[in-house]
Amino acid sequence: MRTAFFFRQTLLLASGLLLSFQLLAAQAGWRQLRIPGDTPDAAPTVVALYYPTKATERTTAMGPFTVQAAIQAPPEDKFKGLIVLSHGIGGTELGHSSLAEALARDGYMVAALRHPGDNWQDGSLLQKGGSVYFTERPRQVSRVIDALLQDPQWKDRIASDAQGLRIGAVGHSAGGYTVLALAGGQVDLSRIRRHCESEREADPVFCGVGRNAPTTASPPAASVLPSLRDPRVRAVVLMAPAGVVFTASSLAEIRIPTQIYEAELDRFLVPRFHAEWIAQNMPRAELHRVPNAWHFAFMDTPASAIPSDDGDIRNDPPGFDRKAFLARLGREIPAFFDKALPGRE
User: Is residue 109 over pLDDT 70?
Assistant: First the structure.
């Protein structure tokens, strides 16, 4: 009996090691998905899908960014989970490709969306006012999750456990706001007005971004927006997030695993008003301060200049090694989700 037990345990260990090796040995695949708008005249949502595959990766230039993946490759039969990725204001679904590729090689499918109305081609969402902007961004992410969970090609590949499907989210800048709203953070528009009345000189880029958005300057009487929590999202990573908009009480009620990265020299979203406001009100969240980093340290370095309200996003402070930092993120963030979304079916 003891011999049989030992034999069974050895087989289980060997199969587990084999599965781990297969996941570690995975390559990143890439496809583009277009999700129709929720009304006939609404713009579709463009999504870059990164996923584990056995096909060989290659380097492909896509505009100013580079994707290191097997284009249109067949996916593995099962993924560790689904991670949605939300870019910053005026951004692109390709701006965090190195992180998405690292997650794919670790066994996850990543859905990096191009936010309709808030991307490098179209900035119309912000012009509809703060209430619409802060409401629609998280809803766009939830609609991407809806579409993938209804898609016969992808839905059965996403692993689940006793708590349900393994779904997480990563966001940078306004994307950090977006995924924290999915976790349960609620916006109080009056906080933006009060903050910019008293701290405009200390936080000039944030307070200048919404200068033409009508409801940001004059929020309605009911300034606390309804919760946009998506209970399917079970863990989030925030990279240089926009945070001053959140109520302290809603942050204190968030229970899912949360990891925050703060760029020490961030001038776009000054940390003490944003990342640190979130961390102060979420005592169980992990806060990582990145020394000598500017706001765009979390993005891949583009091949050509891309201007922003805080200068060219290619630029870094003297002595900061963005390539090394992105490689570090490519190790730490998959490890965070492995811990936050443990176990298998």
Answer: yes
